[in-house]
Amino acid sequence: MPSNKKRPLTRSTQGAKGTRQEILKVQEGQHAIDAVFSNADLISHIQSFLPAYKLRGQHAVGNVSKKFHAAQTTNNKLNSISLSDVVRTCRSSDDVRNIFNDKTLFQQLNWQAMLEILSYHPEVALRLLNEPKWLSNQDTCILSSKNEVLGVSLLKSLSCRRLNDNEIAKIGSDCPALAMRILNDPSLRSKMSITALTQLGKKQLDVAKKMLTDTDFRTRLQGNNLAILGYSHLEVAKLILADKELRLKMSFHDLVSICSNHPQLALAMLKESDFSAQLNSCYISMICEKHGSIALSVLQNDDLLLNLELSWVCIIASQDPHVARKILETFHSTLTGDDLANLGHQHFGIAKLILNNAQFREKLKGEHLARLGCANLAIAREILNDENLRQRLGRLELIILCNLPGATIMILDIPELFNTLTEDDLDYIRSKDFPLVNDHILSKLAGKVFLTYEEERLMKHLVTDVYKFKGICNLVQKVLNEEAKQIFAKKARI
After folding, report:
1. Read out DSSP for 292-349?
2. Do 339 and 364 form a contact (C-beta atoms < 8 A)?
3. pTM to 2 decimal places
4. What's the domain count of the chain?
5. Is 89 within a domain?
6. Do 121 and 115 touch, CB atoms closer than 8 A?
7. In a domain, 145, yes or no
8. What are phi and psi of 51, to 5 degrees?
9. Are the CB atoms for 323 and 317 separated by under 8 Å?
10. 341 is a domain residue
11. Could you tell me if residue 139 is inside a domain?
12. How far apart are CA 346 and CA 45, in angstroms?
């Protein structure tokens, strides 16, 4: 008969039990991870802490996981990351390398954006500063503005003598130490107008605060200068509004301008009867322009709505896609082309809705189409691919669309549009220095012996600067490659 006695645990059975427990722990951990990554809002929150170049381009986190991609596309803020956001979040040499190693991002950089980014890589910036044939005064200031050593060197050099006050302000705009050095240097300070000093204070909080307390500056400051400083810094705005002497210098327009950038101040001021009684459509629009929450509160305020025409309601409603959609449905037949452009220019979904509606399409002129397309390449492509719509575009509207590299290529490739552009227009496109456009032009002309009329114009106006641009790019890539080799060699020695 089999024994009922419990069999003692052997080493193998104990090991199996331990393995099962480990598996269960791993499974529990996996379930927890799955729970986290199934929460789109949580993923979006995590992504919001990443630098912008991690959300756009070849190496974007959305390319790693479908859930990451879905979370980003459903979040309006994360899904509308712009090139200026990429530049703004670049803060170190590592960021510079990551951006330049992303082929998709690199192709979208124009000359200005490239310099802004490279200013965070001192070695590259120094190499470029030693190649003055490629740089204007403005370029020199941009490259020197992020690094205190380079900035101080420029301020002490003979080159500083040829800089105007706005260019000197540019040097200190991104580095607090440089900004205060400029403010405390009598020779530099005396050279600068109150307008240039205001631009410096606009970027640097400590400079702005000192301008409010320094007797000399307080005397020179006018209402428009105070409006700029208050608009730029909430702390400064509160100081100005609490100072009777400074507040008396400002017009009502200056006061509205300050409030328009600070929702908490705007909401407080809207509750003051003296303030709200002076508001007209233009001022209400200024306050609502950047803040959807204030736009909603205004649209729910019957007293304020009495002062608003439909065109201004559309401008205010454009801050929120849900409100914009409601306006489209409610005032369907009375909306003008201007109204439609105002409602749709900030939101892809609203612009798409307008283009897909036959009644709305008939109301759109070239200027309205340019507004809808200039903020989104997909909308611009839809307009340029539609023969009926693109016939409404004049040269000014085409130039507006040329702010998008992808749209520029389409315009250069469609003879009827390209021939609309003047020589000045082509010079403007050249000034953009989009690598994506430059590469397209070179590949288009490569190996050609006989050029068409359009290709001759391209060669004359654009190709010379393309080669200059490529020379800069090659130098930058060389420095970055040398640096990468040095880093690799150090790691190998360790």
Report:
1. HHHHHHHHT-HHHHTT--HHHHHHHHTTSHHHHHHHHHHTTTT--HHHHHHHHTT-HH
2. no
3. 0.59
4. 1
5. yes
6. no
7. yes
8. -65, 155
9. yes
10. no
11. yes
12. 22
